[in-house]
Amino acid sequence: MRDEAQDVAEVAALMRRRLTAMALVAVAAALVTAPAAPAAVEPYETVTPDGVTLRGWVHLPDGPGPFAPILEFTPYLDNNGDDSSSDPGGYQYLVEAGFALARVSMRGTGRSGGCLQFGDDLDRQDVVHTVNDLARRPWSTGNVGMAGHSFPAWSGDMGVALRPAPLKAVLAESGVIDLWSLVTRRGAPLAAGLGALTHAVWLARTGTVNQGAPEHAQCPNLPEDTMGNAETARGGDRTPWFQARDLRPLLGDSPVPMLRSQGMLNMGEGHILQSEGLWQLLRPDRTRFMLGQWSHQAPTRKDWPQTVTAWFDHYLRGGPQAVAPGVVEYQDDTMEWHTADRWPPRSRPAVVRLSGSKVVPDGERVEPADRTFGSVDVDPGPNVEPGNPRIAAAVCGPHQALWVSEPLAEDALLAGNFEVDLELSSTQPGGNFAVFVWKTSGSGGCPDSKASTVGRAMLDLRHWHTEGQSRDFPVSERTTFTLTSHPFASRLHKGERLVVAAGGGAVEMTPDQRKPMLTLHAATFRLPVVSAAPDEQGTAPQAEAPPLRFEPPSAPAARRCASRRRFTIRLRRSLARARVTVDGRRVRTVRRGGRLTARVDLRGMPRKTAVVRITGVTRSGRRVVTTRRYRPCATEPHRSRRWNRP
Asked: CA 564, 568, 569: angle at the middle one, nearest 5?
């Protein structure tokens, strides 16, 4: 039953959202008189203290000025002087709102001099120099902003880290605060042309297409940078090269206001780990987040341009604070929006465990969950649905293992990261590992066309002990460690089942040459069930998020069955070779003492008859086909004299 505190908190939150929306409308209305197109596009040029010339374009709005400049410091300009060079990119609306937009090429790109530094200290100092230079221009108010998406947003993150005095506000859409966590997944190089190939692929784009200056490929630092990226393929470690490109030590308590957006689609947003721990580093009174179900792009909300304009209007021109800091807006996978006072939002961990072939809530009796699977370079899970960004490229087969819960007894909202304590053994000291949580209104079996991703966690097993420092995974012994998932937000509905899928690889990671056999012995998940945010006075609500509850089994316990039978059958001595299948799935045969044997594993099978089929050839060349049926829930295997006869 709802209490009064919950009602008051929800009404207050609704009023805040309506007031914010009204303020945005007011700001947008005040800006409609801005010109529809810039009145002037001027070339821009500045020389850094070490003598490198940076070039670009400045889009000046109509009017006498002065104007507040917004810098997009980017490697993606052509700068050859043609019409495309004067394109304001995705920020035409800022020029129309009366801001001066400066699009400047980073060193070693476009027609700027010098050499590409790939995010080191020289790039950071160039940001400081350019911000200071824009503040001194005769048409400038002296209050400078920065805006960008992806790599240009990385430049904005550098500005927040180094905090030059004229920099008053930053917009960072899918920026970069830590290059190592961009190009790896907990030490496993990111696939899709990134990871160890990041520098080469990126240079191919900027060096031969956008730059128009092939001489930049002769820069002396390029081999070092290429080798720095290539280290991800060897150990996946956070080497000194990557440490020099980590902004986290510099971001703490920065006074520069940041408006940050981040997509959370697993397969579409390569920057998904860049928001990890960032809210805790920055000042809440200077920070606002927007996270949602989009890929590597700007937010898909229609009010995003108005939000950005209002953000810069307040901090650069003294306009009303229509977009308040200290707020996180995030979208779950049903496209519903939520508001929190932090990221991850306040939550209570709901504990579920693997038990036999099931996912069970904390407090239930836990049975051994031992499942063995081989490494393969696709996602584990119950479904294949190409083209759906929230459905991974999972296939059914022996490379993955599934555990399924009973239906949920009530709705729940999960947001943040899940943690899982794992007990795993492996036949190799390295290789990839992935464990996903899915939800489905179907059975949770394989295939299941109704399943979709809740959250995913993955790593190079060499990073099981310390993230960023490789250390061989113990071979052939049970090893415990904790793994943290990617950030996510998911709405669970009553009647849906949770599915845990584990496997030896994922399409998001570069295939590993090691192909270990992995056995998952036990796993405990802590799922973040969202609780309410404090009210406007900062008082925490009394009601906490309830733990996840599941419906009781639909059948009486005495009639339910999840088989634990596993036994070896011996084939007739006269067989020279044989093919053995269990319900159509081939199993390995081994010759022991002159006789072929096969291991029949019925563990986890439901109450039904398992069909074992043997197709063999005798030493004399005669073909023999034998079929046998077993009851998975029987206590003893059925003996067959015919199979065991000489």
From this structure: 125
